[in-house]
Design brief:
mainly alpha
Amino acid sequence: MTLSDARKRANLKYLKNNPNKRRTYQYRSNAKTFIKKHATIDDLNELEKLIHIRREELNKQ
């Protein structure tokens, strides 16, 4: 399905006005792809430690 010109303009406007959300979505997507397709056991163990540390930081706020 092709997008109308109005929808394309609306999408570009949203992306321009919300750069932090766009960046967050890209980071999340990259992280999921890495975990699902490329991560080794050592990578997963390291990520678990980082997640644990980050959760503790967020819980303190």
